[in-house]
Amino acid sequence: MRRLVIALLVLVGLLVAADFGSAALAESAVSRQMRQQIGLADDPSVRINGFPFLTQAASGHYSSIDVDAQHIAVGKFRDVELTAHLSDVTAPLSMLLGSGPKNVQVARAEGTAKISANDLERLVPGVTKVRIESVDKKALTQLVQKGGDASLADLDPDRTARLVGTVTALGQPIEVAVVATLELAGSKAKIVPQDVRLSDGTALPIPAVAQRAILGLFAIPLDVGALPLTVTPTTFRAQDGDLVISGTASGLKLGGAATAG
User: Fold this and answer.
1) Cβ atoms < 10 Å from Cβ of 189
2) Domain segments of the chain: what residues?
3) pTM for the predicted model, two decimal places
4) What is the side-by-side order of every strand in the sheet holding 61-74?
5) Are 109 and 249 in contact (CB under 8 A)?
6) Which of 11, 112, 195, 200 could lock 179 by a disulfide, CB 3.0 to 4.6 Å apart?
7) pLDDT at 20
């Protein structure tokens, strides 16, 4: 009996090892295809979810695949992080592991692109040490109490960001905070400044014309139509120190002409 138990454990171990080994090969194949599709310098990280893998491979259908890619060029940005969740993926294992052309079909993709403060800083001339912060309703109300326009209290915090950076005014470096709305319209996104003051919340000690000039620096239009996987953006927000654009796509073909439904 003991020998039988040991033999069964060895067999199970071999099956698990074969399962993970096959999954790793398939993940590598999908990764190479994603790299080619998106035009990356390096292979993205790919994880095929679900166990056992071999039962999914036998049917050529995978319920869930996660993709993580770094340092992507999107529009004016050069260091975007992309995460994507692919659902209902059809890709026969023989095709993935073979040497012929690949055609991976994805029923639905949910993608998120993260724009860092460093990447944003490149687009704001004359501004250094840029930070991206989220705001809440209380912070917007406090701005009004400190002399801001009453309309600030009506902004949606989920679509508003606080952009902090250092500028030179009257010959001196000062840290300013710009409250801006984050707007989406089709394939276009915009950062629309609404208020500027010192980062401690007090009014800027500079003429109104100089304040308008600072606001203009942070008015940045973005073309998000170039998001990988033809993702259609649906949300634009500040989160954990980044600007985050999320969206969905359907009816994708990796290795062929990608379409979004």
Assistant:
1) 22
2) 2-114, 125-217
3) 0.76
4) 45-48, 61-74, 77-90, 104-116, 242-254, 232-239
5) yes
6) 195
7) 43
